[in-house]
Amino acid sequence: MIKPTTNTKPGLQMTLPTKKEGSKKATPKEELVGLGSSVLSDIKKGTNPKIELSVRGLSNVTFDKEAKTLVLGSKTAQRYFFNVAHAKKFMQTLEVAAISKSLLDVQKHASLRDVFYMAKRTIPGTKTNIVDEQKETDKAIEDLELITNFPREMLQVNANKMGSVAGKVVVEDAGDIIDWSKLGSGGWSIPSNVEHITFKKVDAKYVLYMEKAAVWERLHEDRFWEKQNCLIMSSQGQTTRGIRRLLQRLSTEHGLPIFVLADNDPWGWYIYSVLKYGSITLAHMAGEMAIPSVKFVGITCDDVVKYELQKHFIKLTEQDLARLKQMQNYEWFAKNKDWQRQFKMMKDFGAKVEIQALSSRGISFITERYLPEKIKGQQFLD
Asked: What is the pLDDT confidence band of residue 17, given thresholds at 50, 70 and 90?
């Protein structure tokens, strides 16, 4: 019989990780099996079963000034089965690990939503569900990334497709040859897992990424990618992991500069920050996601003044102001005079401006003048 330990208090117990010297990197399946074996070993020894994982959060994230990316620190934590504060998350992590292992066994992929429904059921003899909301399985998947050191895509779990790309690129995906320049008005729908895509041809000077699908559609209809010999890529709001990884691959494997086009607001600027430096929640994947060379092409506060867009001001909300203040204090922005100037200008405006405000200068102003002039003149924020 397993006896609960008496020193487990609510909250995760902090330790420092131990590194295995000269060990061969295990496969995702081997890591999952290792997790199960470790828990089983604890049970057989009669000790309190535990799971060890890196601490995810601001307290364990640092900014690597040399690499110019966020990195996960060395703190780890233990989650114990015989601990009221840990027990349910412990169970959820093992349940999702079992689902991932079953997917690897049959070499099938599941969506984040699929995993939620595969895990959602009532524990026999109780009125308690293993999970009640998708955010619980989503968190468990993030835990498994930390435990196994593999991204969820390698654990056979994908997110929804939420991006499009067009340009003179030919790729091979799942045995199909796909030409991004010949896919009609919708472009190529970017999958959540781009690791297995093979680039057959890449003919472009740079990649222009934008947060809004509507702006992408304007550029695509105007054949901006063809006229400027570039790639145009978009998502629907915050950049998906598949898009971030695809951008990084185009940058590192093909040397393409990445330019970001976003709203003149704290959230558009935050998208740029995440692309360039990585994010706090995914600091453990900065090596596969962050693109330190990325540059911001607009919209800037200077553009608002230059093109007289003040009549399109939208008043900053309390949430906007809080995000603006947070970004001002980020270590990677704190000593950047150009960005601090933008932060101050926006605060003085007390307002933000959307990309579509440029349409007031003409429906194709953004493709015929704004972007060509800024890119040719290298008018970027770095």
From this structure: very low
108: how many CB neighbours lie within 10 A of its CB? 10
N-terminal to C-terminal alpha carbon distance within the chain: 60
- The phi, psi pair for 232, rounded to 5°, reads -115, 135
Q: Do domains 13-158 and 164-376 have the same CATH topology?
A: no
Element (H, E) at 211: none
The single residue listed with the structure tokens 């970004």 is: 327
Q: Which of 104, 15, 111, 112 is nearest to 55 (CA)?
A: 15
Q: For residue 118, name the pLDDT band (cuts at 50, 70, 90).
A: very high
Class of domain 164-376 as given by CATH: alpha beta
Structure tokens at 116: 């939620």
pLDDT at 193 over 90: no
Task: Report residue 343 as tokens.
Answer: 């932060």
The residues annotated as belonging to the active site are: 117
- Is the Cβ–Cβ distance between 132 and 114 less than 8 Å? no
Neighbours of 381 (CB within 10 A): 17
- Of 266, 248, 267, 262, the C-alpha closest to 207 is 248
Asked whether 140 and 118 are in contact (CB, 8 A), the reply is: no
Calculate Rg over the CA atoms of the chain: 23
pLDDT computed for residue 71 by the predictor: 84
The hierarchical CATH code for the domain 13-158 is: 1.10.10.10
Domains of the chain, residue spans: 13-158, 164-376
* Contact (Cβ atoms closer than 8 angstroms) between residue 81 and residue 49: yes
| DSSP per-residue letters across 131-191 | -SSHHHHHHHHHHHHHHHT--GGGGTEE-----EEESSEEEEETTEEEETTSSGGG-EEPP
User: Sorting pLDDT into bands at 50, 70 and 90, what band is 19?
Assistant: very low
Could you read off the pLDDT of 24-63 as tens digits, one per residue?
Answer: 678 999 999 999 999 999 999 999 999 998 887 778 888 8
